Amino acid sequence: MTQAQSSTEAAAGGDGTPEPAEAGRRERVVERFLRWWRPAGMWRRGIVLAAVSVLLTALLFFHSTIPNRIGNLGSLLETFLPWLGVALPVLLVLAVLRRSATALIALLLPSLVWLNLFGGLLIDKTGSGGDLMVVTHNVNAENADPDGTARDLVAAGADIVALEELAENQAPRYAQDLKAAYPYHSVQGTVGLWSKYPISGVRPVDIKMGWTRAMRAAVSMPDGKVAVYVAHLPSVRVKFHAGFTAGQRDSAAGALGEAIAAEPLHSVVLLGDLNGTMNDRALASVTSQMRSTQGAAGNGMGFSWPAGTPMARIDQIMVKGVEPRSSWTLPRTGSDHLPIAARLQLPR
Asked: pLDDT of 95-137, one tens digit each?
């Protein structure tokens, strides 16, 4: 028998059972914890915290029923819906400090609903392969370094690059900077498409704005054509007297959805700044018929705006008739949006 074994047995007793003193210390620790955790009224404590959890559950579960009639409150909530999850750890800490069993049990409700809505985005669904890499980027009309932004986009190595918010005086600079890597391109209004593969059937898409902020093109891939839409839907504003003003964005989304629904090609890719998230009901005309590459094959929330501290994914890559393999955000450029990218598998 080694000295270490002898010492251990001496502390635990010859038969390996704990010494009475050690067992007594453990019992006292457990007893003190139970006295702290199970005070009188532990079921009556934390009623307010439990009520907050129930309210949070209602907002998460019934978000689509919150009306937009007053300040588009429903769409405003849905734009930042994932951030309601920040309240969950706060409520957990408060429930523990309050020593309330009622608050802890009530907290299970919003936790389960939040995980059902967004838990899938916390799982890395990134796959391998894909025969088409696409990038979309709102380059910001006030971008102080368009040349640097163009270099960063070329370095990403995509097959197709879509740009939004192209200022009239900067579009030629982007065209020149991207020309060597992307021999085929078209700019329609304030959006543009650059491709390593030939493009045809280029036309503006009328999204009821009075000027061109959306376009369509057919990209000729080795295995067939892919319809690529580039869109920049109108911005939304949060105003004290008017709430979440998004009427023009909503009507533009409807027009874009109609154009995509009428697309004759089987494989369709939408690239752009939609100024709304996948949860926003106002984008249903688009989101109901297409899949988000981030939701299907991404890792994390994929927030893209604002670039310094991303809080929402309003820049989207969406597909139908195409299989997403991976989706991610790219490093910050001179824009106030992050570029986003995806690898796609086209049908054969």
From this structure: 999 889 899 999 999 999 999 999 999 899 999 999 999 999 9
CA 246 to centroid of chain Cα atoms = 20
How far apart, in whole angstroms, are the C-alpha atoms of residue 348 and residue 342? 19
Query: Cβ contacts of residue 177 below 8 Å, gap of 6+?
Result: 146, 147, 150, 151, 154
CA 263 from centroid of its chain's CA atoms:
26
pTM, full prediction: 0.83
Residue 163: burial class (beta carbons within 10 Å; 0-12, 13-18, 19+): buried
Structure tokens of 91? Answer: 């409520």
Tell me how far apart the alpha carbons of residues 2 and 20 are, in angstroms, rounded to a whole number: 24
Cα 210 from Cα 253, distance rounded (Å): 14
The two structure tokens encoding residue 186: 């078209």
Residue entry with tokens 């926003």? 280
- Helix or strand (DSSP H, E) at 292: strand 291-292
Do the beta carbons of residue 136 and residue 317 sit within 8 Å? yes
DSSP string over 155-208: HHT-SEEEEES--TTTHHHHHHHHTTT-SEEEEETTEEEEESS-EEEEEE---S
| Location of structure tokens 């200022």 | 167
Cis peptide leading into residue 306 (ω within 30°): yes
* Contact predicate 191/213, CB 8 Å: yes
Tell me the C-alpha distance between 149 and 326, whole Å.
23
Question: Judging by beta carbons within 10 Å of its beta carbon (0-12, 13-18, 19+), is residue 162 exposed, middle or buried?
Answer: buried
Question: Hey, CA dihedral for 298, 301, 303, 309, is it positive or negative?
Answer: negative
Q: Is 35 exposed, middle or buried (0-12, 13-18, 19+ CB in 10 A)?
A: exposed
Note the pLDDT of residue 17. 55
Q: What angle do CA 133, 305, 53 make, to 5 degrees?
A: 115
